[in-house]
Design goal:
transport; transmembrane beta strand; about 5% helix; globular; 5 helices; five-stranded mixed β-sheet; single chain; mainly beta; Maltoporin, Chain A
Length: about 850
């Protein structure tokens, strides 16, 4: 099929305008969404793309910056390096620290850095967007070409490669000021250096210091607020009534004889305490062996250092202040190193490509865990004297220590991937892409849940006979079980009540292919795709505490009292009256398909129909069998997509209109659940069957009547619905309810007007409006919270001359609070928010 279209993808080229002798036209953008290099207007895929110039003019740097530009793409998470991407409303819940890696669901949106998949469980890689050629967003299942986590779509970050044509360099620096927050500044630099006529190097560096805007304000709390003392009929903050299974163990107890010691946070009070620094570099080399073969290799390193949190408490006395009360340090140190290589060339008529990559990521984090107080029915057991909580005792009396809890988390992740693929010539009536893929991901994670008050509680002891008077002070430190990270044979650090110390390994093999047959050349084509996969997920290590041990590796059980289970394939639990073996490995293999019909009646019109499938791999639950209902293995969830789409370039390439309509059915939707009445660990289950219906569209218009003007916009309309509830573990939102992170409407529009000023200068102005409707944060009833609709207004203006440019910008001009994520797991609203109104400027210089 010949390709003549010159359109770009949707909102991608909203800023680019090229003047001709006749009139301005929409510029084109080239993508590799089909693993071939093609114009975005020529491929029968719903693709959104932000080109290099658009990324620069929109000042896109980090994860949250992409989202404003991409209707239909949402995210959950709690700050830098902790985001999860959702496309087309295929979402159920958002993971938190305590599920982070080893127990988290595999993402259903794949993230790629060039040819390297960097999709990670629990914590998506927050790649700083410097010197990118483009960002591609492929909506809908892309599983045949991009694998298991491409269930709802794929996002690809394509970097600029070394260039043999000549020396070039770019330097930019900026400063900004946030209302009610701190100053931010950044500097970025790029150098392209041809060494010989066959070897070129390219280096990138960046430093971005982002000032805080959330205040940690003074406050106190004590253990009397624990869920242990919660009376029947209590209505949670989200309107859900506490039922009999969620009553506190000591609801209605006379607590007048208990001395509740307050935790205060004066040591941690600070204005604008959520600072974040991005620091990193990337270096790449290109070597051309001859006209047919070339090798590209790159190495990147990045470090994120972040303090505080990016959520606020809307129930504090001053609702106009972005504030929260935290009772321990919140710190994140997230760094990664990535080495990737791509060898590409020709074998006769075949285009051949081999690519591989190795990623090593280390994350150390401390998170205040004091909010667990509000739902933790067992919490007083660890920090109160036994005379307060010990069964069979008289009226409660004694001390309850301060509930200043925190978690220390250490996560090491390595990912090794390889892919070999081939393309047949595209000028034939039949052409194909086919290859093989391998991935090995290993996550080592240790979480230490620290309750400082447990050191001071008197009379505690899990093995005290019934009716006897407990003695002693504090819980005795436990000795770790053999696990993933434990090298010190000594006891837990002081105050550590729970330790999760687990290694998770995800290994994947796949063979894939797509072939196209031009039934009528240049008019009608049929494409079929297939992927065979074999995936295994394994857990080893232990989840244990100061009073019992729970092993996840054969022969790892040491001592212990209750809730002991082994993941060795032989232990079992009784669920719904049936004996069920606890697996030590989850696996899945199978085949997914894709079919496409493309109709191209003219050079400027393309229509397509697509059927495609996607899936996520299975996973194991750490607290398998808890309450007799938590499954040991969570099965794959499967998605089928039926889609029609159109891509049009009209009026001599001055107007581009793209769109699609789709229906997606989701079977065995995986979700993460936190229900402390079942177990105090997050776990997962196949929660429901659901359906998503939607329409997406975009336009870009460069009216020839007004030279220098470009107007662009995009929208997403979603109708999501839970059709059947599958799980018995906990209450899911009723049939007919919306899925999480699925606004019914999202859209944006922007205009850019450029004009000459005198003989030397060029100027521009660019206003932009972004709107997102309301949505829900979860499908689990007790964790479900409403996220309000919002509209954001941005404005930028600037001048340029020759090789330099000066930009001025105002982000969030109306100072609107956008609910990016609402975490309600601990019965308190914690709303992750956007940055308040920010003014800034940036200077950029190019060298050649």
């Amino acid at each position: 099929m010949k390709h003549y279209l010159t359109g770009a993808s949707l909102i991608a080229v909203s800023t680019v305008l090229s003047a001709t002798a006749v009139h301005a036209q929409v510029d084109q953008i080239v993508v590799t969404a089909t693993k071939r290099t093609e114009s975005a207007q020529d491929i029968p895929i719903a693709v959104q793309a932000l080109g290099e110039e658009s990324l620069d003019q929109l000042d896109v740097d980090v994860f949250t910056d992409y989202l404003q530009q991409l209707p239909g793409v949402t995210a959950g998470g709690s700050g830098p390096g902790q985001g999860t991407i959702y496309i087309r409303g295929v979402a159920s819940s958002t993971p938190t620290l305590t599920v982070a890696g080893v127990a988290g669901l595999a993402p259903n949106v794949a993230l790629y850095l060039d040819e390297q998949p960097v999709t990670q469980v629990g914590r998506n890689l927050d790649v700083y967007a410097v010197d990118l050629e483009r960002v591609e967003v492929l909506s809908g299942p892309q599983g045949t070409l991009f694998g298991s986590s491409s269930q709802a779509g794929t996002i690809r970050l394509i970097t600029n490669k070394p260039n043999l044509d000549g020396f070039s360099a770019h330097l930019s620096a900026g400063v900004s000021f946030t209302e009610g927050g701190e100053m931010s500044n950044k500097v970025e630099g790029v150098v392209n250096l041809p060494v010989t006529d066959r070897l070129a190097l390219r280096g990138v560096f960046y430093s971005d210091q982002r000032g805080g805007f959330i205040d940690n304000v003074p406050g106190t709390r004590d253990a009397s607020e624990s869920g242990r003392f919660r009376p029947a009929g209590t209505v949670r903050r989200n309107g859900v009534v506490v039922d009999s299974s969620q009553n506190g163990f000591q609801a209605g107890a006379d607590l007048s004889g208990v001395n509740f010691i307050e935790a205060d946070n004066l040591e941690y009070v600070e204005d604008d305490f959520n600072d974040t620094d991005y620091l990193g570099f990337r270096i790449a080399a290109l070597y051309e062996f001859n006209d047919d073969w070339r090798l590209t290799a790159s190495h990147a390193r990045q470090r994120i250092e972040s303090d505080g949190v990016f959520s606020y408490d809307p129930e504090l006395p001053d609702p106009d202040q972005l504030s929260i009360q935290r009772f321990s340090d919140d710190e994140l140190d997230d760094s990664y190193g990535s080495t990737a290589w791509t060898l590409e060339g020709r074998l006769g008529a075949l285009e051949a490509l081999y690519t591989g990559a190795y990623l090593d990521r280390n994350t150390e984090q401390t998170v205040d865990y004091s909010d667990y107080l509000f739902v933790g029915q067992y919490l007083p057991y660890y920090i109160c004297d036994a005379s307060v909580t010990y069964p069979g005792m008289a009226a409660p009396s004694g001390n309850c220590q301060a509930p200043n809890l925190y978690v220390n988390s250490l996560t090491n992740t390595t990912v090794f991937t390889q892919e070999l693929r081939f393309n047949t010539p595209q000028d034939k009536r039949i052409y194909a892409t086919f290859g093989g893929f391998y991935s090995d991901q290993k996550i080592e994670e240790r979480n230490d849940f620290t309750y400082p008050g447990s050191i001071l509680a008197t009379g505690v002891g899990p093995f005290t006979p019934a009716g006897a008077t407990p003695t002693g002070v504090g819980f005795a430190p436990n000795f770790p079980l053999p696990g993933s990270l434990v090298t010190d044979p000594g006891p837990f650090p002081e105050g550590v009540i729970f330790r999760n110390d687990i290694t998770r390994t995800d290994e994947q093999f796949a063979l894939f292919g797509e072939a196209t047959f031009e039934v009528v050349p240049d008019l009608l084509a049929v494409t079929g795709g297939i992927r065979w996969y074999d995936i295994s997920v394994d857990l080893e290590g232990s989840a244990n505490s100061s009073f019992y041990n729970k092993g996840i590796e054969e022969d790892s059980q040491l001592g212990g009292a209750n809730l002991t289970a082994l993941y060795d394939g032989t232990s079992s639990v009784v669920i719904d009256g049936e004996t069920v073996d606890l697996p030590d490995e989850g696996s899945a293999d199978g085949v997914i398909f894709k079919g496409n019909l493309t109709f191209t009646p003219t050079d400027n019109l393309l229509f397509y129909f697509t059927y495609s499938e996607g899936f996520r791999p299975p996973l194991l639950n750490r607290p398998a069998g808890a309450g007799g209902i938590v499954p040991g293995l969570v099965e794959t969830d499967d998605l089928t997509n039926w889609e029609v789409g159109w891509k049009t370039t009209l009026f001599d390439s001055t107007l581009q209109l793209n769109g699609n309509a789709f229906i997606m059915n989701i079977d065995n939707l995986q979700t993460t659940i936190f229900d402390p009445n079942i177990v105090n660990l997050f776990f997962s289950d196949n929660a429901a069957n659901a359906q998503v219906k939607g329409v997406e569209g975009d336009f870009i218009w460069a009216p020839y009547q007004v030279e220098g003007l470009t107007i662009a916009g995009a929208f997403s309309v979603l109708d999501t619905e839970i059709e059947e509830i599958l799980t018995a573990t906990t209450a899911i939102a009723p049939v007919g309810s919306d899925l999480a992170h699925a606004p019914a409407f999202q859209g944006n529009i922007r205009a850019r007007y450029e004009w000459p000023v005198g003989d030397d200068l060029n100027a521009y102005v660019m206003p932009q409006v972004t709107y997102s409707g309301s949505s829900w944060s979860d499908i689990v009833e007790i964790n479900r919270a409403k996220q309000d609709a919002y509209m954001l207004v941005n404005f930028s203006a600037g001048v340029s001359k020759d090789n330099w440019r000066l930009d001025f910008f105002a982000d969030n001009l109306t100072n609107k609070r956008a609910d990016l994520n609402n975490f309600f797991g601990y019965d308190r609203y914690r709303i992750t928010i956007n940055r308040p109104r920010t003014f800034g400027m940036r200077v950029s210089v190019d060298f050649e």
